[in-house]
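Protein in question quoted for reference:
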Amino acid sequence: MKTSTAILVATAVAAAGFWRAGNWRRQSLRLAEEQHQQQLRLGTARLHQEMLTSMEADPEHWAIWAKDGRSPEQMGEFIRVNKQISYHHVSFELGLVTEAELRVRARSVMERDAVRRFWADTRAFRAEETQSPLTTMFMEIFDREYVAAILRVSKAVTEKASA
């Protein structure tokens, strides 16, 4: 083999090696950043849950956060429901729950009057603060189950009235 051919082959092999190493490094950095963002999200969610736990046990907090004609007791109820909704939200965003599983969970929680009241009163605010595609999907799933629950309740009331 000619020296020039050997040098060309060696250069090509080295270039391919550098390219693969660079590609591997970029992938490693991307994965590390994704993991870091997930850890930040999880830490923030933990702090949010701790804050809600503190607030749900303190009637003084209920009075501080009560607005729009809600009584402090109603605000306490909202705080407890928010804790549940936030748990389902972060579980979905972190990939711990699939779309299908989230639908089942949303259907289950929407069977409760308190959850439907909370969703009706806070949905617009949640939609305003929505940024990520996963949060948008979460909102759509909870909205569909909210409407379905309202229709089920309305049908039950109509059937009961006509009986």
Observations:
- The chain has six helices and no strands.
- The first helix runs from residue 3 to 56.
